[in-house]
């Protein structure tokens, strides 16, 4: 077995001849100089609608098609206006990426066409790849010898609305990739009202004129089902129970029948097509025809604005790399009717569940709308696109009617607070090694959110309840419902955030901006609690010890680090990680946000990659302020619940323009 510089993995015989090579068995990617020939095909990963896309060379052309039961083509190189023709005639039998272009040859090796996907001549010597994505588009990227990957802006197809998954079925794609349900359908469900017209339990089916100028991605690439008149086309669809929609072109008499419907396209000119779809019969139908199918035309009406539900569905459907979309019944079954409750969060309860394949999940059932819906959108868009060993993985979601649910990976050991805030002496206690690794893993998860995502992500609610532990007590940061995306240059204040009192940085109640440094402060508080095995404010302690951060600063100044550490822990006195962790925690909870280290620096300090100088003493004014703040929080009994930072007290103290 040999991996060659071209990226081709080959299996060689004793005489060095090739027995097998990966270039002959592509998946979803083609590399430079990899021959793509008739009989091969690229297959995309399934998208959120479980639809895959295929690329093949067929009948002398290269074709993209959707993998419905009856495949529906939506692009071909032969009809691609951006290609250049080197020789007219001939049939394509081989395609190969060469420098910054895709070249097409006939069976005799004659150069027929060329598709240039990058005008960057500097990258002519780079290795280029073509990838068929789960959104149905082919994208191109270069892999230079030095530096990072460069993506070409060129995609196939060029029109955002010309793929089967641009919008959900029965939605019309408009310029700007906006989606709106067909006006003849209810925008609440935007569907025909049946699963299959071949099994509609005796219900009558109507054939409805869509009354709008529509185009369909497959019309320019599929042969017509027949040549007839409009009535003949309708009768053909009626006679074929699998037919869901028809398109008829008056000028040619071409009749197109489709047994699956993908995204529709807006076409004000109509393209000479009229279109009908099958729907479940209602009392509004007029006139009955054979087979229990009725025709009727609805009054033309002005297009309505998309309803909030359809806007949200489109938002979710257009996200790349989306997790699995579950139905409400799927998750109802998975959780055994939500019978095992794991916990209660700020916006809903979490239940234990098991999918049909045996995968255990934690299902978060969002309760109510408003801020809960914002959390839903934030979590699905952010967590669904992020994968890191110290961040909780979102497996799927449900957006059905008023139901909003999130299905996370299940972490058997629950949240950190259950392990460090022990109520009984006989309870199992985490040792120092485990605690330190939890602290380090949490820091790495936050550092990834702050520095390694495409856009900076501020969590805004770091607390022990949002640090989950797997079977091996590896930490994973959870609950991104409060997270906000920021550009790397942005540092202005968010006005709709909610955090948990007891972990909020001073800038939350002063006139300073909220930023990733606010997460650093919250992390420092959590790290102190991990070290001390107690909450940051405990009214049961003496007045000196009740506010743990103030006590920790005092003990640091007096050189009594052992008094900060959980008294029940057995540690090696020579273990430098104890003093490192304490000093890092006290650096993180500095009142002045500019003194707090970034999370990447926190990771380096905890790993011993750089020295940790003694932290400066905390402001006594801030300590008194926060001691009173924590005390009032504790008396209210909401120390672990979310604090609404939309209140007048918060907003009056926060300047939208950032720091003074």
From TrEMBL:
One of its GO terms (cellular component) is membrane. Its main location: membrane. Residues 336-609 form the Protein kinase domain. It catalyses: L-seryl-[protein] + ATP = O-phospho-L-seryl-[protein] + ADP + H(+); L-threonyl-[protein] + ATP = O-phospho-L-threonyl-[protein] + ADP + H(+). It is a single-pass type I membrane protein. Gene3D superfamilies: Hepatocyte Growth Factor (3.50.4.10), Phosphorylase Kinase, domain 1 (3.30.200.20), Transferase(Phosphotransferase) domain 1 (1.10.510.10). The keyword Kinase applies. It is found in: Membrane. SMART domains: S_TKc. It is an enzyme of class 2 (transferase). Keywords: ATP-binding, Disulfide bond, EGF-like domain, Glycoprotein, Kinase, Lectin, Membrane, Nucleotide-binding, Phosphoprotein, Receptor, Serine/threonine-protein kinase, Signal, Transferase, Transmembrane, Transmembrane helix. Its EC number is 2.7.11.1. InterPro entries: Bulb-type_lectin_dom, Bulb-type_lectin_dom_sf, G-type_lectin_kinases/EP1-like, Kinase-like_dom_sf, Prot_kinase_dom, Protein_kinase_ATP_BS, Ser/Thr_kinase_AS. ATP binds at residue 365. GO terms for molecular function: ATP binding; carbohydrate binding; protein serine/threonine kinase activity. This is non-specific serine/threonine protein kinase. It comes from Nyssa sinensis.
